[in-house]
Amino acid sequence: MLYKKIVLIVLGFFVSFVGFSQDAKERNQENINVNKFRQLYQEFSSPNMFRTASGAPGPAYYQQQADYKMDIELDDENKRIYGSETITYTNNSPDNLEYLWVQLDQNIRKKDSPSLLIDGGGVSPAYLPSGFTKEFLTDSFDGGFNIEYVIDENNKPLKHFVNQTMMRVDLPNILKSGESFSFSIKWWYNIQDHVNQDGRSGYESFDKDGNRVYIIAQFFPRMAVYNEVEGWQNYQFWGDGEFALPFGNYDVKITVPSDHILDATGELQNRKNVFSKEMIKRYNKAKKTYDKPVMIVTQAEAEEVEKGFSKKKKTWHFQAENVRDFAFATSRKFIWDMMAVKIGDKDVMAVSMYPKEGNPLWEDYSTVVVAETLKTYSDYTFDYPYHKAISVHAKQIGMEYPMICFNFGRPNIDGSYSDDVKFGMIGVIIHEVGHNWFPMIVNNDERQWAWMDEGINTFVQYITEQKLGKDIPEIIYPLENFPSDRGPANMITRYMGVDQNFLAPIMSNPENVYSLGPNAYGKPATALNILRETVMGKELFDHAFKTYSKRWMFKHPSPEDFFRTMEDASAVDLDWFWRGWFYTTDYVDIGIKEVNQYFVSSEPSVAVKKIMEERGITKLRPLVFLENFDNDTNSVKDNDPLENSKLLNNYLNENEVSNKEVPKFFYEIIFEKPGGLVMPIIVDFEYEDGTTKRVTYPAQIWRKNDNEVKKLITSNKKIINIILDPDLETADIDTSNNSWPKKQDESEFDKFKSKVKG
Hints:
Blueprint: H1 2-26, E1 65-75, E2 80-90, E3 97-103, H2 129-137, E4 146-152, E5 160-163, E6 166-175, E7 180-190, H3 194-197, E8 202-206, E9 211-216, E10 222-223, E11 226-227, E12 231-232, E13 248-257, E14 261-264, E15 267-268, H4 271-274, H5 277-286, E16 294-297, H6 299-305, E17 313-323, E18 328-331, E19 335-343, E20 346-354, H7 361-380, E21 388-393, E22 399-401, E23 404-407, H8 419-434, H9 451-471, H10 493-496, H11 516-536, H12 538-551, H13 559-568, H14 575-582, E24 591-601, H15 606-615, E25 625-628, H16 641-645, H17 654-657, E26 665-672, E27 681-687, E28 692-697, E29 708-715, E30 719-724, E31 739-740, H18 746-757
Helix pairs in contact: 7-8, 7-9, 8-9, 9-11, 11-12, 12-13
């Protein structure tokens, strides 16, 4: 409409002038580009033949391969593990290699490990008795690898040097591009009590029956990653930064007491030798049962077996293709159940192993949750490619490996359990099974970028949890929704609002942040949830996310590959989003600074008269003016708003205004952004007649003024309330400035939010 154009010309001049002046004052003396919508050219490395600008692997992309053949024996009596392995390393890079780096992660548990000295601290004013005993009265554990030899395929010793958790193996000859080299390592170490000595693997002792449950991982010397991004990823293992590993094929034989039940990464090769006839019969039934788990080893059978301690041995043989790691669990206490899950055009076995101390919780929920996790993750990424997924009960631990994971969640001695224990167990099973996708298949560098697997996985975990409540509602009964503890925006606001001295960007090494949980898990999961539901929309996001997952399955993506793919597959410029959420510690705080109401006038406003005076203008052509009520000097504001709008008839012919809705009310809203993080502005307007309207202004509304923006709102109904972020979906850390009229107390604000949402 003509009158709107005229008004906006006048008002737009003031907005542009004020905004330009304000921005100009804030620019530094070098006049560098500090606009938050600038591209990430300085942060990103240049695309190349290995990794393209689209975020896809390039034509020269390569990755190394490490194949393992191992013989392992677990000494239950002495709590020790022995192993010998032959590694065949294939150099697919264009580089010639003089040496290889092997990871010795168990060395973090050596008595003289530097990792014991890197954390500061002081005197605690009080200790729990158990904590005091652990801190001051317990002998230090003597862990770490004992390397007996490193030899080549001709049994000749290879020169090697151990540097903390890394071992350099010097090659007798240059390993040229396309060549392979085989060498063998023999080793042993003492297994730690993971309940009392921490760690991602180890054993738990059960004093009542004298048995132990073993969850064994990081148990063998493993090849480090070599690529064009890092060269050798030989950053030391200090405890928080997890693992970077190449893919390979595994042939592993594990010898344990003959009365143990064992499962591991890979496909069991000698089932007839280690299963009883009844177990095989049950297993075959489980392969065809899709609705509920089938017991392979019952609780009664496990309780009977745990009474004895066999001196005989049994060897379990597994083979796995194209996996990045290997882990196993073994105990005579294990109950074992399985069921089949249809994933795409093939069947996958969902599996659980747990001692009687896990029941009834584990028998009721574990395998069912594994099955639902396989379905949901496959829907949002790619079909699960392995033949099984195992959930193993382990006190205090949540940890993941290919096809197998260790999960906490234990009922009371009498079998009772709280909702917190139940949902905590379900959540950790989803999370750890989900790690099969990130990073076991989409194989990011955990040592450097914890968020790429933890944050992305936590995001898909949240989707799975919420879907689980809808698909199997009895799991969350009597709650309305699954009580997720990460994912929704309002759950990260407390962390994002803490003292900046105790924050680090998501794009930080996990060893160098104060609070790894919210930094690597919670904040990136929330960011992706906001990106999906508020910024991009589910359809665009889901397509881009699946594109990333498929592009990088069984490969090694970098953060830039993820960022670039999400933009490439969606046509949404997200550089501003990545910069704010991942490269800074900025927080979200958007508020309503001011609301002004205007009326239509045939006379120049005070502001216009001032400009006329300053510029020596004595006469104006006919214009329509909007006058602020606060500046009114006549009685127009007392008229009905429609009567004011009818002044338009003085300037526009009847045809121009007929059959058109003439606005009765004009409002100027000034939005401010005390927080540094750029986000969309989501506004709910409540009108005098009780109706509401939602408007979402894209984040780009801040592109020309990073501090405040003004919007002119027209309406034929009076606005009585305005609220920002009514569904708390932007992670705004301060809602006290999110309403107009300004809220008087929290109850009124919440009441209005509920009314708007309803």
